[in-house]
Structures are given as structure tokens and as C-alpha cells.
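Could someone model iron/sulfur cluster with this protein?
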Amino acid sequence: LIQIDEEKIHSTINEKKPRSVALDGPDGILKKIQSCAHRLSEKYQIPVYVIGDTSWGSCDLNIHAAETLGVDILFNIGHTIAMEKFGDKVVMIDAFDDVDFGKIAKICAIKLKKKNFSKISLVTNSQYLQSLQKVKEIFEYHGYEVVIGRGKGHLNDAQVFGCEFYPAYDSKDKVDAYVFLGQSIFHSTSIAIVTQKPTFMLDPYFNEFSEINDIAQKLEKKAILSVFKAQDAQTIGIIIGLKEGQFAKIKALELKRLLEEEGKKILLIAMTEITDERLLSFQDIDAFVQVACPRIGTDNHFHKPVLSVPQAISLIKLLKGESTEGFLQIKHWL
Ligand code: SF4
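Reply:
Sure, complex below.
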């Protein structure tokens, strides 16, 4: 079950005495956030707003919404990161899933031995960070050397985002395989793509573990194919995402210059939610580059190619006749 650190919310409200607050977080815990909002408004008798827009990561905090609402504090729940501060208004609140990984970790440790893996690295997302130590001990008990990759920037040790992989990338030459704690195909496939190592996902709810490399390969092929398709585009739309943590105007202008040097006609576009439906309105554009979240094009369906920053760099190299090999085997897909 997901446990929100409500203690921290209460102590912050007691200390700062806000006139109103807002809560937001990922869709998966929105139900819990709603219950929390009811409890807070009853206890403190202040307006408590639940921001219903998406909050995919610590890059997507909806600070603008909080400012428009005029709240004193925005509690962003469920995006545990290694940094505490995000301006004066935002307070990051942990939400951990206390599900037990014991049974599935033991099954996985026994079965991977048969594949002759002896060194593994554990990785996870914010929800399961607190389960790492226990799973590490189980694998060590079964004779494995367990590497916990070092965190960097926003990332804690062993933590990955969908676009940022320092703890996994930095340990890739030291281990035989990766074991990801949690049900996230989104996170585990990117580890497999970046490290090119066997990657297993531990599902504590169904007590199953699965190798994720085939799915990862399909995702990688799709990303490569989009780059090749974009080669023939005459007009390219470069989209600047308007979410605070994804805003990258300078990068967009740099890519504009580089693509224009290769003969492409560029239209600069700004938008908040980048969806196929919205892009269909841009009928004269043959392909898009978006400098917001690198997973938008790879993990969603679009009628036209939608490239992330590494894909756009790969496209530029392709147009110059240079090699583009390994463009996704990097620490950060930005
Ligand atoms: S993958 Fe996208 S949503 Fe997740 S942290 Fe990166 S930019 Fe944000």
C-alpha cells in the first residue's frame, strides 16, 4: 500500500500557517491524494486544492497552477528526489509503497543463478527506494555481488527517472544484469536500452519477475525508425514544452540552427501537453522535434515522427552522413 508522508504535511502547515494549499502528484496515487485533501481541509479549515493536471515527474510540478490559485504551499507528493528545494512554495512529500519484495526477490535470486549471473545491480523508482536494502540482503544471501549505483543531481542512489539513468549507467561495466524493483515497464525498458544488459523487473504484487529486453528492443527500434523517417521532412516543428521543469528554449534554438544548416525549414511551437491530437492541427509540418520530456515520442502513438533531443542529434548526424550508433546509450536522454 502507498504510504504518504502526511506527518511532513502536518508539520509544514503547523509551522507555516498557510491560508490555502494545493496538492498534486502522479495519477497512480491521485485517489490517496484526494483522501489526504479531505483530511487536511477538515482539520485546518482552509481551502485545499487538488491539481488535476498530470504530474509525471519532478520536472512537472504544476507550480504555475499553484501560483494562479494563489496558494501559499504546493505539496508535490510521490516524486522523491535527492533535492529538497524547488523554490519557496513547493514542498516535496515522499510516498512509499510498503509492499513486501521478500518472496519475489528470493525466487529471482535462485532462478538467475541458473543463468550464471553473479554480479547484479539493483535499481528502482522513488516508490520503492525503501525496499532496496532488504532486496540487497536477499541477493547477497544467495551469493551475489550487489552493486548499488551512485545517485547524482536529483537522483538518489539506485534511483532512475524515465530519462535519467546515472546509477544504472555508471555501473554497467561492473555487473552481469540489472534487477528493477517495481512494476514499471516504463523505467525498466530504458535501463535495458541504456545499459544493453539483461534487465529483470520484479513485480511484488503478482510475485513474478520478467526479462524486459525484448520490449526494450522494440522501443529502441521505434525510436531509431522515427529518426530515419524524419530524414525526408522538409519542414520540422520544434516544440518547446511549457512545463517548468521541461522548459528548454535554448536547446530548441540550438537545434533550429543545426537543422537549418542541413536545409530544413523550421517552425518554433510552444505547448504544454504534447499529444497526437494537438499535433494533427499542424498540417504543414512533416516531422517534430520536442525538447520537453524525451519519452513523449517513444512511449505514445503519433502519426508523424516526434523526436526527442538525442533523436534530433542523431538526425542531424544522419543528415551530415555521420554515424549515429549508440545514441540512446547515454546517461541522460536530454
Ligand atoms: S522521463 Fe519525462 S516526465 Fe520523467 S523525469 Fe524525465 S522529463 Fe520528466
